[in-house]
Amino acid sequence: MQIETPYLMFLGDVPDRLAAKTAYGIKDWRPEWCVGQVRLPGCAADLGIQDLSLEEAVARGCKTMVIGVANAGGVLPEHWVSEIVAALKAGLDIASGLHTRLGAVPTIAEAAAATGRQLHDVRHTSETFATGKGTKRPGRRLLSVGTDCSVGKKYTVLALERGMRARGLDADFRATGQTGVFISGRGVAIDAVVADFISGAVEWIAPAADPDHWDLLEGQGSLFHPSFAGVSLGLLHGAQADTFVVCHEPTRTTMRGVRHALPTIQAVIDLTIQLGRLTNPDIRPVGIAVNTQDLEEEAARTLLDDLAREHGLPATDPVRFGVDGIIDRLLSEFPPGAGIATVGVPAP
Amino acid sequence: MQIETPYLMFLGDVPDRLAAKTAYGIKDWRPEWCVGQVRLPGCAADLGIQDLSLEEAVARGCKTMVIGVANAGGVLPEHWVSEIVAALKAGLDIASGLHTRLGAVPTIAEAAAATGRQLHDVRHTSETFATGKGTKRPGRRLLSVGTDCSVGKKYTVLALERGMRARGLDADFRATGQTGVFISGRGVAIDAVVADFISGAVEWIAPAADPDHWDLLEGQGSLFHPSFAGVSLGLLHGAQADTFVVCHEPTRTTMRGVRHALPTIQAVIDLTIQLGRLTNPDIRPVGIAVNTQDLEEEAARTLLDDLAREHGLPATDPVRFGVDGIIDRLLSEFPPGAGIATVGVPAP
């Protein structure tokens, strides 16, 4: 799906910031797309941008109203439905991260049909994918992988996108999760794709590109997570990753939602290379990204120095210390211009 | 889903046997459930069982009419729709392997609602799964794995079920594909499950059981297949396989649908053990199953002897030479009574 930008951010009347986590993520990474917000009476979230009426939003060029909030119980409350219908009538598309499909609510479906506006359900996909082919395609691809779920994989590639673009490099964040799809305006939440099409969907998300173009793919789960390793493997194969960054959260004792111990960073590097070789024989790591928010700065720097030495890779906390070291390594491992060789120039 | 048995087999007016492949598979493995068939004028398939009217089928105890045929173009032809509606009115449930959902055809949906009969779409699932937990559960589990897709994984576990039951062992085939679901009357086509829930669905398909009970799980794809390795890995983790049989087709030169070379049997054994250990540290192989239909008997026996010697495992073609050697090995590796230890008996 391609979501038209810029956005009007709908916050409803959520009881706290956490319920609007997706909206804050969009605002953090795409402030230029977040023209204004709609808050209903009692709303406890505030993106710090202007409150706009639907008419004002349209006048300022908004194309889509984004519902980046979680509602209790999974049912769309009636007073949200009427606001959504009003937005459609005002000329806005709607993009929603709710479990409930917008089109499953008859009054919303009717209003969309009557106004000719689009409904995007980011948790679902109407896209039909081919199965993955594993055929080498031009362009460079980096995948963030992890020792676990929720260790900063999305944040790491978004930070890389920002840093690489600042150096004039041609790089695009490629979303594989709900918040990421809003941030990129495109992509597929992999957890909405049927099992047989994981790697095919990733080939679609990160298609053939210019030899020096970098797709920065948001990883999911972990090859060592008993619930999600299949998703992580399909992502790795579909990405045909040239390189990867290992993301880690040092205070975690067991993997999220299960009782399994965390793998070591070295184990993740080794298995990612071993399995990734199936679709890219030259895959190799360029860095380690650690979420150090629970450590004092001194302890964080010591940990990162130790990891860098142990693995021979730049190690950083992207939020605290930036990603320059990883970009430097990326450019030395994959110098611009060298990518052309991977396209397969025909013999003279 | 649980499909009520026995079945009335609907063959429609398919132009050849291949279009009724699923129906033949059900008839081969569950002849006792296939009470009769319905063939429309022009039908080129014949299961060799009695042609019955809907009323005769109901009188003989049929509970479900099974649509185990592929229709051209994916659209349900009008003359099939009227037969399906008539079957519902006669008192039969309908189970379909078609891409089109039965309930998406208004006249079928209305007839099902009016008669209170069930519609089963085997390619789709309305079941909600939890994510896999990777927690050890009692009971024994064998998974068929492969060097590729379509190398006899379903056939191998069905042959094992038949052979083990003949020896009085407690064993159940567990389906993960469309034809398998009809054969077991239960299960989930894994290619209908959303990516995040592969291993969770497999935990549901093969739940906790008596310590000496064997679930014989139909594998899918291959850990080495660039399109489907994620599915194969989720299956392996969800199965928590105690053991596995490697299935192979010796004349194949590239993996199905892609240009990748086939892995060796040894590579499949090694990677299955390496990755399977995440949810079952004691995983080990008990046999090799080879589809030798393209080889003369002498050549087939030589190949199997060589493979058995090379890998130190029983190697057989389940169709040609049976599965006794694999069952012998299974019983010596996992003697009945020993399984009780895995349940975790509380200390006195």
Explain this structure to me?
- Two copies of one chain form a homodimer.
- Chain A has 348 residues and is α/β, with parallel strands linked by helices.
- Chain A folds into two domains: 7-121, Rossmann fold, CATH 3.40.50.720; 140-343, P-loop containing nucleotide triphosphate hydrolases (Rossmann fold), CATH 3.40.50.300.
- Helix content of chain A is 34%, strand content 15%.
- Chain A has twelve helices and eleven strands.
- Chain A has helices spanning 21-29, 54-59, 78-90, 106-115, 153-166, 178-184, 198-205, 229-239, 265-276, 297-311, 318-321, 324-333, and strands spanning 7-12, 34-39, 64-67, 93-96, 119-121, 140-146, 171-174, 214-217, 243-248, 284-290, 315-316.
- In chain A, the strands form two sheets. A six-stranded parallel sheet of chain A has the order 7-8-6-9-10-11, with helices on both faces.
- In chain A, α1 (21-29) runs parallel beside α6 (178-184), α3 runs parallel beside α4 (106-115) and α7 crosses α8 (229-239).
- The radius of gyration of chain A is 21 Å and the shape is globular.
- Residues 341-348 of chain A have low confidence and may be disordered.
- At the A-B interface, α7 and α8 of A face α7 and α8 of B.
SSE diagram, text form:
The structure is a homodimer of 348-residue chains.
Chain A lengths: L6 E6 L8 H9 L4 E6 L14 H6 L4 E4 L10 H13 L2 E4 L9 H10 L3 E3 L18 E7 L6 H14 L4 E4 L3 H7 L13 H8 L8 E4 L11 H11 L3 E6 L16 H12 L7 E7 L6 H15 L3 E2 L1 H4 L2 H10 L15
Parallel strand pairs in A: 1-2, 1-3, 3-4, 4-5, 6-8, 6-9, 7-8, 9-10, 10-11
